[in-house]
Target: MFS general substrate transporter
Amino acid sequence: MDKMPLHIAINTGASTPGSFELSSPISPQISPTLHDVEIHGPEPFDVRAPAAQVDIESGVPAGTDIGPEHAATAVPQLATAGDKLGEKLGTHGLQPLRERAGSLKLVKSPLDSPITPADQATPDKEHTVVLQDQSNFLPTKQVVIVFLGLGIALMCSFLEQTMMATSLPIISASLNSGPAQSWIITAYLLVSTAVTPLSSRFSDIFGRKVVLLFCLGEFWLFSLACALAQTTTQMIVFRALAGLGGGCLINLALIVISDVCSLRDRGKYQGIFEIIAAMSSGVGPIIGGELAGINWRWIFWLCVIMAAFATVVVWKVLPLKHVTGHVKEKISQIDGVGCILILAGCVMLLLGLNWGGVVYAWASAPVIVTMVLGVLLMVGFMTFEAFVPRIPIVPVSIFKYRTVVGVILQTTCMGGLQYCLLFYIPQWYQVVYGLSPLRSGLMLLPYICVIAPTVLLCAQIIAKYGIYRPQIWIGVCMQCVAMGLFTTIDTTTPISRVLGFQALSGIAAGCIFQTTLSALQGAVPRHEVSVATGFRNFVRLLAGTVFLAIGSAIINQSVNGLGLSATIVTQILNDPPSIHTLPDLDDATRARIIEAYHGGFRTVFYLLLGDSIAMALICFTLIQHHNLRRDDDAQLKAAGHKFMEDRKKKKQAKKDDHEHTDVEAGTP
Model:
């Protein structure tokens, strides 16, 4: 039988119904009596006027007020249209069109592109590959259970990093690392930063749960290898490989939460992540110092135990959607060239930043060459992503949204500020006040402890009122005041006053962290939330590394200018607190060194003050308000409830079948 067109007349309430022609290879299987199918009611194919038609590529009615989630560069799944057609035609015994939607050829709609809000630009490029939507809004009880696994996974990553800060000297002495000791931490940092944006796109292609379990398993394996390492080279290699999995855990945890709860409710749960991060940052150095005093290998054994537990919990309780398709097809969707470019560029850039002023002079050839190559490779990566891959790792279309640009710039400023505070404030206590590493770590608690309640308060405001910009504005203004106060401290300033400045900065940070993430995720289409979140986390890590390198150069230069011997300068720079214990220093020289260090710290605080002011200007001018309620939230919540009910029924049916088999076999 020849192919015959399937005509669908759409009832618009006018005298002449609009129609479009659907020509399909499966039409020979459709009974000729079904040529004309009328669809009535407010279905997704409704139109506003007889001449208007549905935009088949977007699956959105013409003339509908569209939210930012429909202003997409990639075409949503055809299964949406297939499901609706299947519901109308299924009563005639047709096979659901969802299974065969890929073979349909639709006559092009007059609407050439999805409708976009007036304040947002429509992306120029349409991708030919469709990524499957993994949104699966779950009931509150199930979301809390999901957090058990994600929270433990997140703690694995944070604790591993913070425990190393206080235990590195002991590990280095045990392995005779010498000058190579810095690479034990640097190797992890290099890899974990570089793979952050890759984990977002890989989770889109292979599925969140698959990639999360892989990262946990990989982190577990190489944490075990670190616990058994016998040489410095082994430790550096194993730490780098552990960073491959550990660096992705934070990013994936934030992405998973965006899949299982609505944008407006998301802040309440993501705020818990900030609490975990703050607690880990606070207790990590203490636990690391205590375990290192017993046996430094217990630091990695603790990571092994926690990673194993997190893997089991995620595997058992995380009910995420599976991404269908053959493994070869998924692998073919990976942007291999983009992966190589961003990995190489990031490693080169971070190498130059870590070498500068420590291994080589800033003006030396190795530092300049690696940093220039890193910048060129990163520029080449973004250019390549804009024109070549079908599924780019970082789609440049997200930067056409004004709020996204604002949040990325704000994150650059905030990431650098936060890393500098967490690193240089304890060092300032050790150098100026002569405190021990443990006590200086405890002095960070006023900054860390106020972040969690502030994040939760801001999240509740977002959930109740749907606003986030006032919290951001208050936060950046408070941060400017806090950094201004930091520039006033000197070697005689009471510690209690400095602790108050830290608490003010911590409250400001709590107002900023979660709210800017909500702004970012509310500004992009749903299918780009993962890559936008991943790029934000990548920028946060990269900016922190850059600012730490700049701060280190400023402080080191202040000591180099004192005219001391090269041996003493090297010893002080490698271990600043040793100023108070070096026997070769007289009191006058020691006081000069402390004053020079304080001058370097004050310059860093001035840098952070300028950074805070720039962040405030960015937030006031670029971050816009977006409605955090989307039209399909109710449908996704209902689908999530149905998903859990079906899952329970399948488990119960499997259990009943097993019991029935046991009864027939006579087994108790």
